[in-house]
Amino acid sequence: MTSVTVTHRFNASVERVFDAWLNPEKVVLWGVTRARIDARIGGRFVFETDYPDGQGGTATAILHGKFFEIVPNRKLVMSWGDNGPDGDNSNAPMVTALFQPEPDSGTTVTVTEENFDPAVSDADAEAAWATVFDALDDVFTNRQDQ
To answer: In this structure, are strands 34-37 and 44-52 parallel, antiparallel, or unpaired?
Structure first.
């Protein structure tokens, strides 16, 4: 089984960081073009990201997922796959995000992604999460979430 765990500290309260994961208006600030989120257990999310297709046009990457556990300001467990909005996502990677408030009003987030494509190296998976965290850091640094 493929698995990677990454940790990142944000200079924002746990409430702001947690909200940035479930609020579609906040998710688009960290690099997703469009987001639909049904933030409840069993609810699904869709993230659409437009990118140049290399032929002068635009293509769209679509990520579907389903929430299995939501503990406000503490924990999210969700599938992180592309099986489609009606798929069961049973073979999709699973992501667990733990949110730890820090005494200085910061937040440490620990993400564990399991069962991702074995063709993806751990280093590439870690780099992908680092890119996500950098984009989220930018949201808080530039106060785009206000």
So the answer is: antiparallel
